[in-house]
Amino acid sequence: MLSDDKAALYVTGDSLSERALENLMDVIDDRVELEVVNVLEKPWLARERGIIAIPTLERLNPGPERRVIGDLSDADALRRFLGI
Description:
- This is Conserved protein.
- Residues 8-84 form the KaiB domain.
- By secondary structure, this protein is α+β, with helices and mostly antiparallel strands.
- It has three helices and four strands.
């Protein structure tokens, strides 16, 4: 299922980033198009987008763009944040 909902998760590959990705995948299923950005591999992208903490989840669409930082362990808060 293609979705208009889009988000980006900025990670480094450490355990906190892995936990954030697992928690996010448990919530979004296929309802959100997700871009996972490893900032160790693409540091310029993190700088360009103003990412200063890892892991960061950025809701891109629907707007307005918003960010949340951490392991994304609160599934209900995550659903509210993403609007799903």
